[in-house]
Design brief:
6 copies of one chain form a homohexamer. Chain A is an alpha/beta fold. Chain A is built from 7 helices and 5 strands, in the order E-H-E-H-E-H-E-H-E-H-H-H. In chain A, strands 3-2-1-4-5 form a 5-stranded parallel sheet.
């Protein structure tokens, strides 16, 4: 049985963690190539979206390289938000090369791509109870060192090298101007 | 006494319910024609705004046709949101034909149109305790069949025909990608 | 043989002229209902787009009423421009109710709707050499009274009532601030 | 020791209160000129942002004139929001003249300007526990007259002259259309 | 006879030249205060709009200071473009304090403000044949030194200090990437 | 001597031609990695910008794969336009990973990146008189088969497979609706 040509995975990757890595590896066992769309690409420097699209690309790229995944197997594409949910599928489809199947467990993503006629398959999570970007950001804010073990080593090093942990703590601090 | 020429009613109609229908009927007893501006027209596929502007137009149009309201008496115009509240009146006024009076009980709408020099009259609600779009959406999400009795028959049939109830339940499901 | 349910006609209607009226009449002989999308709805007060969407709706509505075309047969929907051509089809489809066939001779409109899987049929023009919105705007600018014969009587009267001819001449005047 | 040429203060000033006035006076003791950037300039007529940028400029201008601060010492510039935090610094820098130092206690503002290479100095607040725009807005909504003592006399008079207190109470009223 | 309180002048000031200065001086003889709205504020680094809004503010401010015009007599406000001409008046009015009369010879500006109910008065130009921003930009591009005599001394010095003449020549160079 | 880590090349690639390929190869001889930013990413289906960002990524990716350039050496990132030239650099920098040098001969790109403090180096073109995207688009429109020799074989095949040549001819056809 031959693999479908290309799969699409959409995520925010704030930050890219070990669960995300397992999802990509799992998808690459099911399709020949994966397009990783980095959503909310225009967002950065906020509690929910601390890292720029470029920084998230760097995280993923370094990790996949370290995992010795062939760079010809994946494409990393930043995708900004649009106002209208139904425009969003066209927006994504415009920005990225042709794909054959969308991988998502997110109900909105599933319904939007389904209504637009795309095949959607579920993501098989690896230890979901363990890997959560929200929890990781909270641990960074709280100064709980354990966050470094929840992301690939390259991601932890990169975040520290750009002082991303300090940035996140700064934007999480209570706003004092009024 | 002659009627004012045209009234304007602004709403989101997510979905169009029996209370809305009574409001339109009541306004049509007070003015010759009504412009129904379908607000937040760019929104869809969310818990608060599940239906597209086109779908909401369809709901209203089918209902008013079934009620045998002369189609020359009303205009259904989608109006997207704008960022600035004070631009909003100009935006609405640009998109729709001339009107003589705005019908609204919404404080923001009232103050914005009043500050721009428009006459604003209150809406006379019919059984407000009964008809609430928020409640209807919640009933759809919860699978409480009673919602079908709160909207005109044409609306219930239309929502089911486009699987709008399934869509709303889907977007209401907890987001599981992180 | 039954008619297709709904046709879509997209135009700017700057202004609505007799050729446009014939196109609508012709389409209404081929489909049950027509959605007239008034494009570039955000544009007004320029040489190419002198009239607001609301004013264009008024022109069309008065003309079709005068022609005794049943108001339940048509929908007039303003559609603003979007930046990306490929998003445009989704944008239009979001704003208007379901339609079965697009009527257009405009190559870009034809290819965009075709690529998105919609049926496109050609418009049968009536005296195209005679009716051109560009020519009509030029005649208004030049003060050539003949323009009034090229648009429906209701349109000529409406344009004059809102001083639309003066507006067009004003915006066409050479800009003298630098 | 000569003063730095220009300082930048960014705030929303909803409304401009006595604490803001002290901050400006304090900064003017440290730099030759101050640029006051009026943020979220596109916002108005909401609970958090009741006043337009123009109204906020008027408040500040009248107060500083009354305080006999030389008008050549300050510039009042409205700055609209942008979607991307990192674009925001470029956006501000594009709209205003050159400045040498940013005054802010707001963590996001501090980190964004710092990452872009600007010097940031803290604001020395005057009776912060007393002067809070959020509290003042709440007092206006609740009809607690004491708010007038928390803003400069010129601001209180101006707000009342434009019926800004009524506007704020109106937009704070529960939305009754659904 | 007392002067009207505030006049509004809208221009792009690319760059601010001696003709503009005379216009401001002339308006200040007719009203107590002038709001100078710096239009197309988001534009810069192009042949028609080489300077940022901030740079244009600097030009005007330095010139008016040098002319010993009291800084309390004028306000310099950057105003970005909006897509819709009819929204533009609301956009301007939102960003700036109240004004009583608009000064303009530009037909579009005149008709937009007039339609919105504002008083518009003509600008009395001083040697229009001499002072043209378009000509000045062309002279800068062509390296014709005479441009320095057409703008106030402070403007010439400022442009040179920011290498604005080099920038304009650079953006005017034929684009060689394809 | 070690190579700079990453170079940035910005282009529209409408379509990607042999000259572009040589530029990339030349840059890869000077830096370790290249980020190819695909500009005007939101544009498609027009005479100047016939192909979507996704299609352009596909063209480049297939060509570089065929040329056996290691996929770990390049990143292909779509970049949409922004309104303000000076925001544009921040916008690009936000969307892509860190880079050390920009390669460009385009005066605007050079001055914008230079003013923002980036190193800019010239592109060494290969047979510029031969390879021009504008000429290639014109040849496609005119049905001159020679265009296929000016682009890499993979690009010619891809364009034909998506009927891109037909699309370009269609959008180039005179617009007949008015």
């Amino acid at each position: 049985m031959s693999l479908a040509r290309r799969g699409l995975l959409v995520g925010r990757f704030q930050p890219f963690h070990k669960g995300h890595l397992h999802v990509i590896q799992d998808i690459l066992a099911r399709v020949e190539e994966i397009i990783v769309a980095i959503g909310s690409a225009q967002c950065s420097h906020s509690i929910d979206d601390p890292f720029t699209a470029g920084e998230r690309i760097e995280m993923i790229r370094r990790t996949l390289a370290s995992e010795q995944i062939d760079a010809s197997k994946y494409l990393l594409i930043p995708v900004t938000d649009v106002n209208d949910n139904r425009l969003w599928v066209s927006h994504v489809v415009t920005l990225i090369p042709h794909f054959d199947v969308v991988f998502s467990n997110k109900p909105l993503v599933k319904i939007l791509f389904s209504e637009a006629g795309h095949e959607v398959q579920p993501i098989r999570f690896y230890h979901r109870e363990l890997y959560s970007a929200t929890d990781i950001r909270q641990k960074i804010i709280d100064g709980v060192e354990e966050w470094k073990g929840l992301v690939p080593k390259e991601v932890a090093e990169f975040i520290i090298s750009i002082k991303g942990d300090e940035r996140l703590r700064a934007v999480a601090a209570t706003d004092v101007v009024n």
